[in-house]
Design goal:
Elements lengths: L15 H10 L4 E5 L4 E10 L6 E6 L6 E4 L3 E5 L9 H24 L2
Amino acid sequence: MSLEGWVPNLSEYLTLADVIDQAFDYRGNTTVVKVDGTEVEGYIFNRNKDVLEPYVQMFDVAGNGPFKIPYSEIKNIKFTGKDTATGNSWLAWLERKEKEKAEKAAPLDKGTA
């Protein structure tokens, strides 16, 4: 299941800290919606919730940064970018199996020539 396109509805059951953790693990761009109404689209590569003022760090879509955004300035996070991990585990497994199959067949081909 991918979070791509998800706009979380924060509640007592889904907190901002939960969404930030999911955004940190997400392999695509997100859009941080700030309390002041501005939005920053980019890639969240770090977060620290165990400090006096918790924050996320990200690069914007132009590659600028890193930017440090305190949790207190974040209203929500939208999962707006393509999830680059979607389907990759199956594709990687399939490619590995095809390679192994080809490697096993190669010695047989050499012996019959």
